[in-house]
Amino acid sequence: MLTLRSILFNTLFYANLIIRMIVLTPAYFLLPRKKAYAIPKAWARSSNWLFEKVAGASFEIEGLENIPKSGGYIFAPKHQSFWDTFGLLPWLDDPVYILKRELMWIPLFGWYVLKQRMIPVNRGARGKVMLAVLKRAREEMENGRQLIIYPEGTRRPPGAPPEYKFGIARMYRDLGVPVVPVAMHPGLFWPRRKSVRYPGHFKVRILPPIMPGMETDAFFAKLMEVTEKASDELLVETIRNNPHIPLPPTAARRLAELQAGG
């Protein structure tokens, strides 16, 4: 049954994406940029609905009151699965993502993200890339947009030792905006590099923003501390409430450490 539900969900998920992208393309490109964002947000809501109704995986969000009501800010979630890239989109006003420039070359998808003025990065050009990213990020955030940054840079399995990249600290310093940490464990239900989707329930915990003005090293340490503390708490809670979930080795090890007081 799990395999059949996963196959059905994956089929419907990608069909939903492709059909919407094709059918709604004329409306998307005729609408003003921000109004056109309603189309990908509707897709995200429908994908969350499929995730719950077909795969059996639901979620709730804690801490929505911690999202700044106005102005630009950096939204900094843990990154474990593909779900992280779209699942919270309906709750964000006008987000802008930093993404690999190769994604801009994908037909239709690349055109969609280009219209939303996403920020492409050439990961091979090391030296000048941060200056270019900062310039573009500042331009977008001056218009009140929210910059989405995954502090660890790439997807990490649940419970894995943290590997935060210092780039977010530089952006915090240079952009002078609040950073909103987010802890969650969707990777237990939508594992990276796997097609299986597990039923159950998880929480997304949006933490109080870290306001601008801290020393860079102090900010970096605080971001890791508050995010990992909340992440550990949610790991224990999520596993306790979903005892059927098969744990990846990283999650099993971290759970044992936490239970031993580590």
TrEMBL record:
GO biological process, one term: phosphatidic acid biosynthetic process
Transmembrane segments: 12-31
Record protein name field: 1-acyl-sn-glycerol-3-phosphate acyltransferase
InterPro entries: Plipid/glycerol_acylTrfase (IPR002123)
PANTHER family for the chain: 1-ACYL-SN-GLYCEROL-3-PHOSPHATE ACYLTRANSFERASE
Keyword terms of this UniProt record: Acyltransferase, Membrane, Transferase, Transmembrane, Transmembrane helix
Domain of life (superkingdom): Bacteria
Organism: Metarhizobium album
Keyword Transmembrane helix among record annotations: yes
One annotated GO molecular function: 1-acylglycerol-3-phosphate O-acyltransferase activity
Pathway: Lipid metabolism
Phospholipid/glycerol acyltransferase domain span: 73-187
Pfam families xref list: Acyltransferase
